[in-house]
Amino acid sequence: MTELIWISGIVLLLLLVYNAFIHPRLMKMRKIKQIEKKLTENDEYKDLLIAMCKAVEKELRQAGEAVDDIKKTYNLMGTKTTLHLGQKAIQIVFELENEELLFVNGQWMVKRTDGLHLDIPFTHYEADFYHEAATLFRLLPLWCQASNTHHFLPDEEAKKKRNQIEEKLFNEVQFFIHSLATRYEPNPLLNVKVQPERNSV
């Protein structure tokens, strides 16, 4: 009888530990994998990344000097998208159905309408383009810094430095767009053509 009580107690304790610590983690990992699969395999999200890159490039080409930050809201492929670019950081918010996909502090995350925040590591075997997009987006604050070099460099030198950074950045943008476009058939509205060579700057 005593042994039965001990065994029952141990089983109950294991169940409590599982429900309190293990099960929530497993459910969270499962939810993250579901979100990753959706964001990776659905071509609409690839279209959205390309549209974002094109919008950013257009924005920077039209910007003047001494740009401390850029705050813009776009409607990209039917998705409300917010860009906040500064000299130290970048934040991008894609307002999807029932959730937001965010790029904040160099990381991807999802914020759901129920208040749940999930960091998305994108470990899906086809999700490497999200890591490539993150690398590209992390370069953008450098553009803001370059647009202010005239404060401490001679005008000609400042202009040359900005042009160098812009050329490298825009080349990386185009390379990413066309590299991603080779994985699927982009929306014709994006007007993505042949894949260019990556130039060394």
Describe what this molecule looks like in 3D.
- The protein is α+β, with helices and mostly antiparallel strands and 201 residues long.
- The protein has a domain at 1-62.
- The protein has four helices and six strands, in the order H-H-E-E-E-E-E-E-H-H.
- The protein has a six-stranded antiparallel beta sheet with strand order 1-2-3-4-5-6, with helices on one face.
- A hairpin with a 2-residue loop joins strand 1 and strand 2 (79-86).
- Helix 2 (43-62) packs antiparallel against helix 4 and helix 3 runs antiparallel to helix 4.
- The N and C termini lie far apart (79 Å).
Outline the fold blueprint.
Layout lengths: L1 H40 L1 H20 L6 E8 L2 E8 L3 E7 L2 E6 L2 E6 L4 E3 L8 H19 L8 H27 L20
Antiparallel strand pairs: 1-2, 2-3, 3-4, 4-5, 5-6
Helix pairs in contact: 2-4, 3-4
Determine the N-to-C terminus distance. Answer: 79 Å
- How many runs of DSSP E, i.e. beta strands? 6
Major beta sheet, specifics? 6 strands, antiparallel
Mean pLDDT: 87
Rg over CA atoms, rounded to whole Å, is 23 Å
Please provide the ordered H/E string of secondary-structure elements: HHEEEEEEHH
What general outline do the C-alpha atoms trace? elongated
| Spans where pLDDT lies below 50 across 5 or more residues | none
The DSSP helix count reads 4
Strand content: 15-25%
User: Order of strands in the sheet with the most strands?
Assistant: 1-2-3-4-5-6
Q: Which secondary-structure class do the elements indicate?
A: alpha+beta
Helical proportion? 40-55%
